[in-house]
Amino acid sequence: QICNQHNAEAPNLEQAFHRMAQTEPNLDHDVSWFLLPSYWAKMVVALISFLCFANSYDGEFVFDDSEAIINNKDLRAETPLGDLWHHDFWGSKLSSNTSHKSYRPLTVLTFRINYLFAGGFYPVGFHVINIILHCTVSVLMVDVFSILLGGLQFSNKGRRLNLAPKTSLLAALLFAVHPVHTECVAGIVGRADLLCALFFLLSFLGYCKAFRENKEGHNFSIFWVLVSVILGAIAMLCKEQGITILGLNAVFDALVINRLNVLELIQKLRHKDKSLENAGLLRKGLLFRITLLMSGGASILYIRWRIMGTGPPAFTEVDNPASFADSLFVRAINYNYYYSLNAWLLLCPWWLCFDWSMGCIPLIKSVSDWRIIALAALWFCLIGLICQALCSEDSHKRRILTLGLGFLIIPFLPASNLFFRVGFVIAERVIYLPSIGYCILFTYGFSLLSKQAKKKKILTVAVLGILLINVMRCALRSSQWRSEEQLFRSALSVCPLNAKVHYNVGKNLADKGNQSAAIKYYREAVRLNPKYVHAMNNLGNILKERNELQEAEELLSLAVQIQPDFAAAWMNLGIVQNSLRRFEEAEQSYWTAIKHRKKYPDCYYNLGRLYADLNRHIDALNAWRNATVLKPEHSLAWNNMIILLDNTGNLAQAEAVGREALELIPNDHSLMFSLANVLGKSQKYKESEALFLKAIKANPNAASYHGNLAVLYHRWGNLDLAKKHYEVSLKLDPMAPGTKENYNLLRRKLEQLQKKGG
């Protein structure tokens, strides 16, 4: 056992290497790389990982951030903390049929803390935490890679020795600057992967601490094994992949702590050899520890299953087309093609996209498809690595290759479609943890090349070049994640066949008021995916606003035909039918929307407008009242109630409704204006004046506010003030209806008064 002092100084490391070399080869021996003390190595990794993603700190909320953060009621203080444990990542009840069953309460809790400390939805704080988390994870990687590449050795004082300081630094740098991590860091929703990775690594390091007093597996700390299980559970409560660390800890225990030779074990089992204990399987403590890990994992999964319920998540064919294929062959071949694309993203992370669904990757339907080559290349490499990991006579190579493959494959299993259907084709964020395995394999390959190379410096320069290119790619990709416009447009060249990319570009343009450009992208989205009901709905809305009602009706009718429970499309179809004066059909469409979405205040509001047009005043008032019950801050519904009651002479009721509305929405100037009109008609001039002035203060450029205040002064007898506000109103809107006539009447009256006074 190595009893050296902690590797604070380079000479101590060299002594440790010398002693280690007596038992097995050391990766650092032939590698031409930087040798830094542990503290400085971690500082370098932290600094470079920060530089990669620093420019994302002032980015906006983009893509999934809207649903997971802005529209997630679980972030708000009024939502009880207990609800986080019964809701999914998006704030929906886990028992709901529409829930994606993504159970990540601890991640949502960090979002809530961000929101409370910032005092609202300010993205800077969210982004800064993500950057800090990635830097922390990257720093921890130095320790993790030193164990995975150099082995687990402790000094007499129980301090862990870093036996591979050069290669662990290289592997940590590769991880820190990998461009595929941009989605996790620059996209706030990626916090789930960052937190999961943090507790994943802490669980692994905790498990390693169990062997500080280890003598060939005989002595270990049960406390640290249990801590590792608990940290694994916390990782899973951040994201589902976290549970896989328990399996990796078991693999590490068998290979590194107990030095298990898998091939030898298989041969002994085949020949029913009784000396299995010598093979390491029954060595004291291993089975007990694996039992603890398996029991802990099973308990965690059972508790999660009980909380989530038994229903599978609801995904559609556009989310994951291969999983809906009837043929087992088509499913299997496409899943394997997806795996090869994930591997390619690790090897060459140049073509990155925020979304890979909706036709971005067409299905492989026959063996004549040239893309089969990618599958063959993937399995050729994997089988070669597995054979080396199992059959090599070099125990050091077996250990590193097996650990590399383990960290590459095992964390990816929850996203592999093997156990359950997932809601994506490819998701760059799920490669965050598997990239650990890639970094191990890359670094080991670099060490083998260094051993053979005569000019090691050229190899080192090449690796430095790769790191530099990755840093630049991270910075570029981070800048694309700063705004939705840049993010969505960056995907057009990567996934031109992805209907969702065109839809999102169109939506972003529509939100900015560029309807003409938005129509172009919505039409392309519908062309690429003729069943894309959301694109049809949005395109129909724009056409409705442009008074192209016939095409709008056709699109919305097709949308509800494809998806009969699409409540928003039913409501919008009702609005178009109302505009076409087909009132009975419009009413039926509104009620169909409400049938599919019981709590739909906007639909009740539009239904109320229909009834008002038909002079069904009681029905209109009831519809608007339902809208305000479901959404108390629904200003338009309150306003329409006040105006309808005012116009029908129910001033007392209009006043009561207006006061009720202002109690709920005290700063709404349109409500102040409507109630001021009612009070003026009721001759409550002083109170009416106060509300008019308050409304004008909030919105000083509203001509009607000044015009109606002038009418109030006119009635009240304050003619000079009336004249002043008439003039302001006409200056703001010279064509204001009735204002010019009233102003002329006032002027004549003032002239008459002046003549009488003269």
UniProtKB/TrEMBL annotation:
* Gene3D superfamilies reported in the protein's UniProt record: Tetratricopeptide repeat domain (1.25.40.10)
MF terms in GO: dolichyl-phosphate-mannose-protein mannosyltransferase activity
GO CC, sorted alphabetically, is: endoplasmic reticulum; membrane
The protein's Enzyme Commission number: 2.4.1.109
A Pfam family assignment:
TPR_16
How this chain sits in the membrane, per its record, is:
Multi-pass membrane protein
Query: Which residue range or ranges hold the DUF1736 domain?
Result: 311-383
What's one GO BP annotation on this UniProt entry?
Answer: endoplasmic reticulum unfolded protein response
Enzyme class per UniProt:
transferase
Q: Which gene encodes it?
A: Tmtc4
SUPFAM superfamilies in the record, alphabetically? TPR-like
Q: What is this protein called?
A: dolichyl-phosphate-mannose--protein mannosyltransferase
The answer to whether the entry has keyword Ribosomal protein is no
Give the transmembrane region(s): 106-125, 188-208, 220-237, 243-266, 372-391, 403-424, 430-449, 458-476
First-listed, main subcellular location of the protein, grouped into a coarse class: endoplasmic reticulum
Gene source species: Chunga burmeisteri
Q: Keyword set for this entry?
A: Endoplasmic reticulum, Membrane, Repeat, TPR repeat, Transferase, Transmembrane, Transmembrane helix
- Spans of the TPR repeats? 499-532, 533-566, 601-634, 703-736
